[in-house]
Design a protein that fits this description.
Blueprint: E1 6-10, H1 17-29, E2 34-38, H2 53-57, E3 61-65, H3 72-81, E4 85-87, E5 92-95, E6 98-103, H4 112-127, E7 134-139, H5 157-166, E8 170-173, E9 182-186, E10 189-193, E11 199-202
Parallel strand pairs: 1-2, 2-3, 3-4, 6-7, 7-8, 8-10
Antiparallel strand pairs: 1-11, 5-6, 9-10
């Protein structure tokens, strides 16, 4: 029987080092294999200290993407600074036959060009992991017409189209804090809205 991969997914940390410390302990206690941070790890890039380190101290692999509070360059800096940390913005990797790909592009659902570019980014990253047994798509934005729109903020047409066309097993998104912990099904895909509400699952 193939070993399951245990994942802790979170987003919108916004520089909260106390939250990171608690999450790192939880990742250790619950024997998490991989931590995924779906953007907005900082609060306007005001501080980068102790946002990744506590996970690395517990020997956890970390995947990150930018949100709307930091640039891709900042996420690259964090990925280069810490071991076992990767920026998957526009990229992908396979771990235990689980393919993970992502994009932190912010698409407010209003600009057709932004939506198309976001989809192209995800489509290209997905191409490299098509042979994986399971696939996880990670974005900062929530999909258009998802439950997160109760917040009044439109979701991304690019993310919605990517879910429809690429059909990942799981889609992780953040951005809308009040939607943390909500899950829904979009076609065959289970969408997990994490925001600041960490979700642990096996795949």
């Amino acid at each position: 029987m193939e070993k399951k991969t245990r994942i802790l997914a979170i987003g919108d940390i916004h520089g909260d080092t106390g939250l990171v410390k608690k999450l790192a302990k939880r990742a250790k206690d619950e024997k998490v294999d991989l931590v995924i941070i779906a953007g907005d790890i900082t609060f306007g890039e005001s501080s980068l200290d102790n946002l990744i380190g506590p996970f690395i101290k517990e020997n956890k692999e970390v995947l990150i993407i930018p949100g709307n509070h930091e640039s891709n360059e900042t996420i690259n800096f964090l990925a280069e600074k810490y071991p076992n940390t990767k920026n998957i913005h526009g990229y992908s990797l396979i771990k235990n036959n689980v393919g993970i790909f992502g994009s932190g592009t912010v698409d407010w659902g209003l600009d057709g060009k932004a939506s198309k570019n976001l989809f192209k980014e995800l489509d290209k990253a997905n191409e490299k992991i098509k042979g994986a047994g399971k696939r996880i798509m990670v974005t900062h934005m929530h999909p258009r017409d998802s439950v997160s729109e109760f917040s009044g903020f439109p979701g991304s047409n690019g993310v919605k189209y990517a879910i429809k066309k690429l059909q990942p097993d799981i889609a992780i998104c953040a951005h809308i804090h009040e939607a943390g912990g909500i899950t829904e099904k979009v076609g065959k895909t289970k969408v997990i809205h994490v925001a600041r509400q960490a979700t642990i699952f096996d795949i």
